[in-house]
């Protein structure tokens, strides 16, 4: 089957080749944000977020008004990231207390090994500063309470996502394209996306708890097992072997998300918070 013809995709335009590399903007934005947070400087992050939000709303309004479609929406994201990054860079360059005009490139890679030992596994899980702070303060009961409250809130957000994707499944695709095939595919996939979010929200929260407990390795292994050992083969089987196409691929993602959530939930329920608090004291000292 010729998927390009079936889905109504046209030949790549020069714009298509420009959009992809701009994802590298996030590789600059995230480290700068972490640097600023470490310096307890939040003003440029707030200013950048506000300007980026206003830019994003304005450009998407133009995209809808002039019917630029999916490419216009993608370019809106790119321009938004550029505005955010430039705001952070200008602030850092002009403000005396955090001004950065020169740096030693070689020194940037000093002590890289201990940083990577924490950074690599943490790439697959969000950081829960609150749990880490409570454990560092030797308050295991409070850390446990925070974790379970956060997971409960994540469940609520997940169910809201299901309601949203279900209600907008027939209208969402038509915002960006008039191709009936693509609209039908989006209508079919949106409810599956919502059910994925029921598992995705709490499992992401629990992975943050694991990072807050200084156990990012466990979260990384859970992600690897759920998405690559379970989800990826399932997506291939249902999408291609069973001939379900795009919907089959999404079912594979659905299985991966729920497998990840179940494993994360088991790790949360089996956590010895007293032991984690003692270990935190050892790490602090």
Radius of gyration equals 22 Å
Proportion of strand residues: under 5%
Helix content: over 70%
Number of strand segments: 0
Overall tally of structural domains: 2
Average pLDDT rating: 82
- Secondary-structure content class: mainly alpha
Query: What is the string of SSEs from the N terminus onward?
Result: HHHHHHHHHHHHH
Q: In terms of per-residue confidence, which ranges show pLDDT below 50 for 5 or more consecutive residues?
A: 1-15
Q: What is the count of helical runs?
A: 13
Oligomer: single chain
Largest sheet: none
Give the distance, in angstroms, between the N- and C-terminal Cα atoms: 62 Å
Protein name: Multidrug and toxin extrusion protein 1
Family: Belongs to the multi antimicrobial extrusion (MATE) (TC 2.A.66.1) family.
GO molecular function, one term: antiporter activity
Pfam families: MatE
Structure description:
- The protein has 285 residues and is mainly α.
- It has 2 domains: 10-102; 123-285, no CATH class.
- It is built from 13 helices and no strands.
- Helix 8 (140-167) packs antiparallel against helix 10 (180-212).
């Amino acid at each position: 089957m010729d998927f390009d013809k079936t889905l109504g995709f046209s030949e790549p335009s020069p714009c298509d080749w420009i959009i992809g590399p701009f994802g590298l903007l996030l590789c600059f934005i995230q480290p700068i944000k972490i640097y600023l947070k470490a310096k307890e400087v939040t003003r440029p992050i707030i200013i950048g977020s506000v300007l980026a939000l206003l830019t994003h709303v304005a450009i998407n309004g133009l995209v809808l008004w002039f019917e630029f479609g999916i490419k216009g929406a993608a370019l809106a994201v790119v321009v938004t990231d550029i505005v955010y990054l430039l705001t952070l860079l200008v602030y850092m360059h002009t403000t005396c207390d955090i001004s950065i005009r020169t740096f030693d490139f070689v020194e940037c890679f000093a002590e890289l090994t201990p940083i990577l030992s924490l950074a690599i596994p943490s790439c697959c899980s969000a950081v829960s500063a609150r749990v880490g702070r409570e454990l560092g303060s030797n308050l295991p009961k409070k850390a446990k309470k925070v974790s379970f409250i956060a997971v409960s809130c994540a469940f609520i957000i997940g169910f809201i996502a299901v309601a949203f994707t279900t209600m907008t499944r027939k209208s969402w695709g038509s915002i960006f394209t008039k191709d009936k095939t693509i609209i039908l595919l989006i209508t079919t996939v949106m409810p599956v996306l919502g059910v994925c979010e029921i598992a995705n929200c709490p499992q992401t929260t629990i992975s943050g708890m694991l990072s807050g407990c200084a156990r990012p390795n466990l979260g990384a292994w859970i992600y690897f097992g759920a998405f690559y050992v379970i989800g990826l083969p399932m997506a291939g089987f249902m999408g291609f072997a069973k001939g379900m196409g795009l919907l089959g691929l999404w079912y594979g993602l659905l299985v991966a998300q729920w497998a990840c959530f179940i494993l994360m939930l088991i790790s949360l329920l089996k956590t010895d918070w007293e032991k984690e608090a003692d270990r935190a004291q050892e790490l602090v000292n």
